[in-house]
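Notes from hallway chat w/ T.B., transcribed later so I don't forget. T.B. wanted the structure written out for a chain they're using in a teaching module, and asked if we could keep both sequence and structure tokens in one place. Agreed to drop them here.
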Amino acid sequence: MKHKTIKKPCHISGTGIHSGQQITLDISPSTSGKITFYDPNNNTLVASPHTSAKTHTRATILQNKTMTIATPEHFLSACAGLGITSLDIHIDGTEIPICDGSSLQFFNILKESKITPIKSPSLSPIIIQDTHEFQLNNGCIIISPAPTSLFSYYLSYEHPIVGTQTASIDLSKDNYVNEIAPARTFGFEHEVKDLLNKGLAKGGSLENALVIGENNYINTPRFNNECARHKLLDLIGDFWILNRPIIGHVIGIKSGHQLNNNAIKELIKIY
């Protein structure tokens, strides 16, 4: 397999959903075989399990001694949907823009920049040989052998609107952009005050999140299982921190960012 990059530079600007900051990404082709972030001081951070830090429940965090990048999962999910493993990204903040709460804008902008393979180094997928199970609190991730790159997610809330939802996708097929990319991050209306008190969701709005009220959606869902699809989007993005495709079936059951990141750290010990 070959690493992939983009043919021409592209640019994305927007608000960080938790920081509320205006952030700009300048994204360039790379032949490094890595997704590398640069800050204004030219410090660097490579997306990898080694830079995947302890997260809060609402976002993944990449961190080393000189840089922190919060909420990269939607961007990385778009990269996974396109098979992109090699980019140089100059960022003027500490959080990836939320855009509309999905990965669709990232996907479209990257695709418009023309995806192209790079000659070297070669890309070795993780081929799952045995079944592995990872648990945290009431969440679980099961990874088992499969002939292609399959991802599934199961969620359940004691809420009359959300209830139990499932979503699945085969990343080897060209359906990520329609089935997963448009699914937005979501939250419950009653959580908003608490999130703000914790210094989170400062940039959240009805323009970038599906908000769930006591008995109905505050804004219109894009899918009847949009919550499960978005959690699947997150799962795919968190696993793309590995920067290697997985040939196997990754199943998230009520898993969140911390469990996702625990699992990838364990996987690199095995494969």
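Follow-up for T.B.: The chain has a mean pLDDT of 94. Might be a good example for the class.
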